[in-house]
Design a protein that fits this description.
Strand content of chain B: under 5%
Order of helices and strands of chain B: HHHHHHEEHHHHHHH
CATH superfamily of the largest domain in chain B: MetI-like
Number of helices of chain A: 8
Structural class of chain A: alpha+beta
CATH architecture of the largest domain in chain B: Orthogonal Bundle
Oligomer: heterodimer
CATH architecture of the largest domain in chain A: 3-Layer(aba) Sandwich
Strand order of the largest sheet of chain A: 6-7-8-3-9-10
CATH class of the largest domain in chain B: Mainly Alpha
CATH class of the largest domain in chain A: Alpha Beta
Number of strands of chain B: 2
Structural class of chain B: mainly alpha
Distance between the termini of chain A: 31 Å
Largest sheet of chain B: 2 strands, antiparallel
CATH topology of the largest domain in chain B: MetI-like fold
Shape of chain A: elongated
CATH superfamily of the largest domain in chain A: P-loop containing nucleotide triphosphate hydrolases
Radius of gyration of chain B: 28 Å
Number of helices of chain B: 13
Number of domains of chain A: 2
CATH topology of the largest domain in chain A: Rossmann fold
Strand content of chain A: 25-35%
Radius of gyration of chain A: 25 Å
Distance between the termini of chain B: 55 Å
Number of domains of chain B: 2
């Protein structure tokens, strides 16, 4: 059980800065997910904590202990690798017992711990097998089991679900959440998949190019993204962005997209006061664009006429790829929609859920209320 | 009543036949391959079998008829040749010498090369790649070029002492230790090269996982690297064993004392003195083949064992 603190941590590989001035405090028992596109430094951040990479600058604490110069094996952490990294020449039992054997734990205690972990994971009957005799999902469990028996202060998981098929991934996601509740240990989980981040995390930390972008609960990040990158990364399908100019005054305030315009709701006008006449980035999520024939957008609806380019039927909903005045965007609408490719239709933007970002800094200027 | 659809019936009737035909065709395609393999095997085995059979025949029989006549009734075989070569020609001692030279030379190479290869593959130290490159460059140096410098060095470094079995010297020419050092040195570049490449191909995650589990570099080496590298190490062991066992050149130059001569040296001397009655040579040659065969059969299963399967997602 422990908190983890990154204090101004930087990691350079020769000239490349993999992690740049990273600050993060992770409370005890939290399930923190580090998420970002590949190459954003999330895995490096995890490996710095594990002690597999040396820290160039800054400090890392586990609990109250500064661990910069503590060897990986003495940091009281366990890690699950994307490749599972099972020892191929050892049985499942020996794989799980390996760390405990090296720590000279009595044989009986090892047996008890391994059996317990195997029971939690439902792999009791696999203990005598070799890794090559296991399926991907079973190997993944063994890798988890190897971490569990160590009873570490912090669990590190580096994309542990990437090698599983889609169905198993969904199932394992829920099991990992359950495991976290049961063990009551700090989990730090690295993934590039925002769905995994949203579904499992207590808090999410979004990274890009080695820089921490925003930290918050999944709902916070969805509702109130701090910048264009987070807004585009969290939520699926991704948010639509338009280059726009803020025009008009008072109730006439609107966003002009060169071709079509949408009014700014009265409650948001004050946010945008200093941007009058300037370029901004206007964002709206696909789920906040409706087909008024089956589901009107509410009091702040802004009608927009668009051509239907492609329709993607998902069953419970339909994704419409639309083009309005040469600007493509995506709407996620009710499956009863009558829109067909090639048609011109009228959709409504729910302007109460609009986002506006500074065109230069890409920081959020106006976003939804805190829920 | 509905009529039975004729085409469905035809398909149902045809399918087992089609399957059988396909299997047949597949087998037929393999026949030439198998024939070629069997042909090669026979071709390669005949000289060895001829040698083995001849070594059990009387001198007169060898001189008067082909080796295949030995198999007819009654079997005219004898162990005289073996007796003669082992007792009178000192082949027993030579066999023993060969073992004394070969086994340590093989074990030493594996030990040293495995350590070096692990360092080259997984430990960080300055000029690692340069050193490795130099090591690999040594592969192209011909043994013959080194013989004279090594011989001169050995003559200068000769250390005399009475030792049981091992002869009159600790080091230098005509000493077993000298032979071990020479053979180890000659074997190392290739051994390090082979093992480094094998170690380097082991997944990094395994090492990191073991470090996190609390293993030291030594622990990783003994508990992870060595067990996983058995295929490479046994391949190396077979190569090195055969090289040293079959070596004539190094022994000829560095071993002056006839009491220490390995079998290769002994047999080559037999050729000059017994060139005409080669029944003695056949048995001597077969004795020198026997141990390599045993070694090969003992280790060959490691060659084919895909021990790495299942390490990482495959």
């Amino acid at each position: 059980m422990a908190t983890v603190t990154y204090d101004h941590v930087t990691k350079r590989f020769d000239t490349v800065v993999a992690v740049n001035d990273f600050n993060l405090e992770i409370p005890d028992k939290e399930f923190l997910v580090l998420v970002g596109p590949s190459g954003c430094g999330k895995s490096t951040a995890l490996r710095l904590l594990a002690g597999l990479e040396e820290i160039t600058e800054g400090k890392v604490y586990i609990g109250d202990r500064l661990v910069n110069n503590v060897a990986a094996k003495d940091r009281d952490i366990a890690m699950v690798f994307q490749s599972y990294a099972l020892y191929p020449h050892m049985s499942v039992y020996d794989n799980m017992a390996f760390g405990l054997t090296l720590r000279k734990m009595p044989r009986e205690d090892i047996r008890q711990r391994v059996d317990e972990a195997a029971q939690i994971l439902g792999i009791e009957e696999l203990l005598k097998r070799k890794p090559r005799q296991l399926s991907g999902g079973q190997r993944q469990r063994v890798a988890l089991g190897r971490a569990i028996v160590r009873d570490p202060a912090v669990f590190l998981l580096d994309e542990p679900l990437s090698n599983l098929d889609a169905k198993l991934r969904v199932q394992t996601r829920a099991e990992l959440s359950k495991l976290h509740q049961r063990l009551g240990t700090t989990f730090i989980y690295v993934t590039h998949d925002q769905v995994e981040a949203m579904t499992m995390a207590t808090r999410i930390a979004v990274m890009k190019d080695g820089v921490l972008q925003q930290v918050g609960t999944p709902q916070e990040l969805y509702d109130r993204p701090g910048n264009v990158f987070v807004a585009g990364f969290i939520g699926s399908p991704a948010m639509n962005f338009f280059q726009a100019t803020l025009k008009g005054e008072g109730e006439e305030t609107h966003l002009d997209m060169e071709g079509f315009r949408v009014p700014v709701p009265a409650s948001r006008v004050s946010d945008l006061f200093s941007y009058r006449g300037k370029e901004v980035i206007f964002g709206i999520r696909p789920e906040n664009i409706c087909d008024p024939e089956c589901q009107p957008a509410g009091t702040n609806a802004a009608p927009v006429t668009a051509m239907v380019d492609v329709t993607e039927v998902m069953g419970s909903e339909v994704f419409l790829h639309l083009v309005a005045d040469g600007k493509p965007f995506l709407a996620r609408v009710d499956p009863r929609t009558s829109a067909r490719p090639g048609q011109e239709i009228r959709v409504e933007f729910d302007m109460a859920r609009m986002y506006v970002f500074d065109a230069e800094t890409e920081q959020a200027v106006s976003r939804g209320e805190k829920r | 009543m509905a009529r039975r659809n004729p085409s469905t019936a035809a398909v149902a009737a045809r399918s087992p036949l089609t399957v059988a035909l396909q299997t047949g065709r597949r087998l037929a395609a393999r026949v030439p391959l198998h024939l070629a393999l069997i042909g090669l095997m026979v071709l390669w085995s005949i000289p060895t079998i001829a040698l083995l059979v001849s070594s059990f025949r009387e001198a007169t029989a060898i001189a008067s008829s082909g080796w295949w006549n030995a198999i007819k009734e009654p079997l005219d075989i004898t162990v005289d040749n073996y007796q003669r070569v082992l007792e009178k020609q000192g082949m027993a001692r030579a066999f023993f010498n060969s073992i004394i030279i070969t086994v340590p030379s093989t074990v030493l190479v594996i030990l040293v090369a495995a350590w070096a290869a692990y360092a080259f593959a997984w430990m960080k130290f300055p000029a690692r790649n340069l050193l490795f490159l130099l090591m690999v460059a040594l592969l192209v140096v011909p043994v013959q070029m080194t013989l004279i410098p090594v011989l001169r060095l050995y003559t200068n470094l000769t250390i005399d002492a009475e030792l049981p079995i091992l002869g009159g010297r600790i080091f230098g020419t005509s000493s077993f230790v000298g032979m071990w050092v020479a053979h180890t040195a000659y074997g190392l570049p290739f051994a390090i090269y082979l093992l480094r490449n094998f170690f380097g191909s082991l997944p990094r995650d395994l090492f990191e996982s073991a470090y996190l589990d609390g293993a030291s570099d030594l622990g990783v080496f003994f508990r992870i690297v060595l067990p996983l590298s058995m295929p490479a190490i046994s391949a190396l062991a077979i190569f090195q064993f055969l090289w040293v066992w079959n070596d004539l050149l190094v022994a000829l130059i560095l071993l002056g004392d006839p009491d220490l001569a390995p079998m290769t040296l002994k047999i080559s001397n037999l050729v000059s003195s017994f060139g005409t009655n080669y029944q003695v040579l056949t048995s001597a040659a077969f004795i020198s083949m026997a141990l390599p065969l045993v070694i090969f059969f003992a280790l060959q299963r490691y060659f084919v064992q895909g021990i790495l399967a299942g390490a990482v997602k495959g």
